[in-house]
Automatic annotation (TrEMBL):
It is a multi-pass membrane protein. It holds the Pfam family Sugar_tr. InterPro entries: GLUT, MFS_dom, MFS_sugar_transport-like, MFS_trans_sf, Sugar_transporter_CS. GO terms for biological process: D-glucose import; dehydroascorbic acid transport. GO terms for cellular component: plasma membrane. It comes from the Eukaryota. It comes from Nipponia nippon (Crested ibis). The lineage of its organism: Eukaryota, Metazoa, Chordata, Craniata, Vertebrata. The keyword Transport applies. PROSITE patterns: MFS, SUGAR_TRANSPORT_2. This is Solute carrier family 2, facilitated glucose transporter member 5. The chain crosses the membrane at residues 6-26, 38-56.
Amino acid sequence: LLFLWSITVSIFGIGGLLGSSGSRYLTVKYGKKKCLLCNNLLMIAAASIMGCSKIAQSFEMILIGRFMCGVSAGLCVPLHHQYVGEISPRKLRGFANSTSSFFWSLGKAVGQISGQRELLGSQSLWPMLMASCGLPALVQLVTLPFFPESPPYLLMHKGDQEGCKKAIRQLWGEGHHQAEIDDIMKEKATMKNTKILSVLELMTERAFRWQLYMIVILTATVQLCGINAV
């Protein structure tokens, strides 16, 4: 039982590692909006599998659902930050990106509160608790089709300048947005002359050694700052 419990807990992180590793390839090939939509379907499927595990009397369904949730979360975190940042006007970009961290923490708090035995953490209601992760995914699946694709993706990867202008007008309203388009073109020119490193190349590149140390130390110490206890 201890082994199964440990696997059930840790398999979420394994799925997250796989999901985040494939996020760059998927976003370049299919675009951020399509990836988010498909990611919502994956989360809904995972929630359904976990929600039906008690009826089916199968702990394997919980393992599969947790793994799928991890893959979905691993894809969603970088995708969400990128998409929100790219569809926001420049003056609101920092604020829009900071809301991601806020709602990430709020979601954790709601999950912890909902998991109390007086609410959904009881012996009869815990399948509903495990399936509740599909509700936000369902909301996004219904609302996201009304949003356009990311303007930088349309211009930089698809070369669709008219589509980019249309997306910008839909997001930011009518007006003169040539300065934003010029910024995207400058970024595209910069990317052409910049080599994209793989994870292994980043870890072995001496020029980025201290930056990598800083990121690892900061990420590790976040776990010790008391936020989980709070």
